[in-house]
Specification:
Layout (H helix, E strand, L loop, with lengths): L14 E4 L2 E3 L14 E5 L10 E5 L7 H12 L7 E3 L5 H4 L1 H9 L4 E4 L1 H7 L9 E3 L7 E2 L5 E6 L9 E5 L4 E5 L20 H11 L3 H12 L7 E4 L5 E2 L1 H12 L7 H5 L2 H21 L4 H6 L8 E4 L2 E4 L3 H13 L4 H17 L19 E2 L2 E2 L3 H9 L2 H5 L1
Helix pairs in contact: 6-7, 9-11, 9-12, 11-12
Length: about 400
């Protein structure tokens, strides 16, 4: 696989991000937000195949087609050789070039997209007979050279009809707005690193409706075989290698859109109550695990925006329930149920004592014996809980 070095000329050159797969977008120096069209060439595999299948993915805006055209033609000779265009969703900055492409340069070209997307991009003057509905091919398209491309639904990311496209041959996932983001104006090259997280997080928190939509799409990605090695989003930089799992995991946990409404409505009184819950959890964890458990919280980048730590004291800043859930997962990861269960139950009981929403805590079956059953969960009786609290970590391990 060819890669782009930091000094690659992104302004005028196409960049081969995988075999027969090129980034062909417009990139102005110091720009922080731009669209990413891609060209995938499926070469002829036999004498019976009449022509190469050239697929333009998320072609960009009509305004930028001149740049895209120049880069495409450096790869395939003439843009009129474009066989098909795939459009993830209807936004003009990533799809309006399709109408101009078909109307002027490649009239034989087809457009592949969802029915929801078609209802809107049809207004780009795309003839109806050029449209191919991906709903007709849920298991994928078989191309003339016997290779295959697979549509991967990502509804509400950020449009109801959004669909990603997976190329299992090159193992590139064209993810649309998912994994897209703002890019630091001083960033070098085409490939993302951990420094892209701030821009990706900001973009998703503004445009994605809810974490549930993100989780659904990521579940679809994780089910792909073979697993993707490269994620090529519509905006921002291309994700590859170790950063594929890195960003899958971070987006899986990210609160966005409606999830953030709590920040606008939560009173200081409620945040103080969540801080009390957090203090109780940390106090118990210090007894059972280590006096240094706060250091574990300080090292977690996903907690930085939710809590503050000063002089060993922790305080909730925003999204109290989410912060508590994250803290409990961090503190109990890899622990035996003997150590983890008291911390999990402390979170649930402390929230109940202060009339807060019950945190979503994964409770181990059989962690405690006895107690009353509420809502299908077996709660510990108070003597059992007090007995657990009286034991040290060394006692439990012995």
């Amino acid at each position: 696989m060819k890669t782009a070095e930091p000094n690659t000329d992104l302004v005028s050159s196409p960049v081969e991000i995988a075999e027969n797969t090129w980034w062909v977008g417009k990139r102005e120096p110091s720009s922080i937000f731009y669209a990413n069209p891609y060209l995938r060439v499926f070469p002829k595999r036999s004498a019976n195949q009449k022509r190469t299948f050239n697929l333009l993915i998320d072609p960009g805006s009509a305004k930028e087609l001149a740049v895209v055209r120049a880069k495409v033609e450096r790869v395939i000779g003439n843009i009129d050789q474009t066989t098909a265009v795939f459009v993830n969703h209807q936004d003009p900055d990533v799809g309006s070039a399709a109408g101009l492409l078909i109307g002027r340069y490649a009239p034989q070209c087809h457009v592949l997209c969802s029915e929801d997307t078609w209802r809107l991009i049809s207004y780009y003057n795309i003839p109806r007979d050029r449209y191919v509905s991906i709903e007709r091919y849920p298991s994928g398209f078989r191309l003339p050279n016997d290779e295959r491309i697979i549509p991967v639904p990502s509804p509400f990311c950020h449009f109801v009809g959004a669909v990603m496209l997976y190329d299992p041959q090159s193992r590139v996932l064209f993810s649309g707005d998912l994994f897209g983001g703002l890019t630091d104006k001083d960033a070098q090259g085409l490939y993302a690193d951990e420094g892209d997280w701030k821009g990706i997080r900001a973009f998703h928190q503004i445009y994605m409706p809810t974490n549930k939509a993100l989780r659904y799409a990521i579940t679809q990605i994780q089910a792909l075989e073979p697993t993707p090695q490269i994620i090529a989003p519509q905006h921002g930089r291309v994700i590859r290698g170790q950063y594929v799992d890195y960003y899958l995991e971070r987006l899986m946990r990210l609160g966005v859109g409606l999830d953030l409404l709590e920040d606008r409505t939560t009173s200081q009184e409620v945040l103080q109550a969540w801080s009390t819950v957090l203090e109780r959890i940390v106090c118990l964890a210090r007894e059972l695990i280590s006096p240094e458990v706060v250091a574990l919280l300080e090292d977690d980048p996903d907690l930085i925006e939710f809590i503050s730590i000063e002089g060993g004291q922790v305080r909730i800043l925003r999204r109290g329930k989410t912060a508590v859930e994250r803290v409990v997962r961090l503190l109990t990861a890899g622990l035996s149920s003997e150590l983890a269960d008291p911390i999990r139950y402390e979170a649930v009981i402390a929230a109940g004592d202060l009339q807060l929403a019950t945190p979503s805590i994964e409770l181990e079956e059989g962690g405690f014996e006895g107690g009353a059953v509420e809502g299908g969960l077996e709660w510990p009786d108070e003597p059992a809980l007090r007995a657990r609290r009286s034991l040290s970590g060394a006692d439990l391990e012995g």
